[in-house]
Amino acid sequence: MKITNPIDFDMSxxxxxxxxQKATHGGGFDCxxxxxxxxxxxxxxxxxxxxxxxxxxxxxxxxxxxx
Length: 67
Description:
There is one protein chain. This protein is mainly alpha-helical. It has one domain. The protein has 2 helices and no strands. The chain has helices at 6-26, 34-55. The longest helix has 22 residues, at 34-55. The termini are far apart.
């Protein structure tokens, strides 16, 4: 899966949040079906890749901090 635009990114975040909430309310990730666990893993990797390659969120650069 590849996220190619902000709309897909937002939809992926919403689906990820939904799966995490289901796991939280169900007592853990074991309550997710195997396909839901796979979907969560796929979404998480795609979100991370989009953040890294498009949004360039990580790594954060320290500003005004001298080492």
